[in-house]
Amino acid sequence: MSNPTPDELHAQAAKAAEAAYAPYSGYRVGAVVVAADGRRFTGVNVENVAYGSTICAEGNAISSAVAAGARRLTTVAVAGLNGGECYPCGNCRQLMREFGVETVVVQGADGEALACRLEDLLPHAFGPEVLGGD
Ligand SMILES: [Zn+2]
User: Fold this and answer.
1) What separation in Å is there between the alpha carbon of 55 and the centre of ligand 1?
2) What residues of the chain score a pLDDT lower than 70?
3) At what angle do helices 57-67 and 90-98 cross, to 10 degrees?
4) 4: CA distance to ligand 1 center in Å?
5) What is the CATH number of the domain that holds 11?
6) How far is 64 from 24, CA to CA, in rounded Å?
7) Ligand 1 centre and the CA of 29: distance in Å?
8) Which domain holds residue 66?
């Protein structure tokens, strides 16, 4: 199986974002997670009237991957439908670190796909090796 390009993943994330539930902010986000075995999982942001209960698209997609048995993830792509930059929040960067994500495809200022390394987005990260996790 060939590796998907950043543009392909960004396009898939943008398509997923069409299903986002963002009635309060209007900031619709989609994400795609690629597992080490090549499976892909999508997620969208799900807002809540109690703002703290809102779920990010990336966390949603990672949860779907884990629920399907994936434990090793390689890439996460994120796209926002409002244009401009779209980067994962700090919490989602930490969620990615847990499952070994190496590449994060973000959306640049002109809406383009940019491939970044997670270690550049989350330097000196607290990872599962510290506590001896799986
Ligand atoms: Zn997030």
Assistant:
1) 7
2) 1, 133-134
3) 20
4) 23
5) 3.40.140.10
6) 24
7) 10
8) 6-125
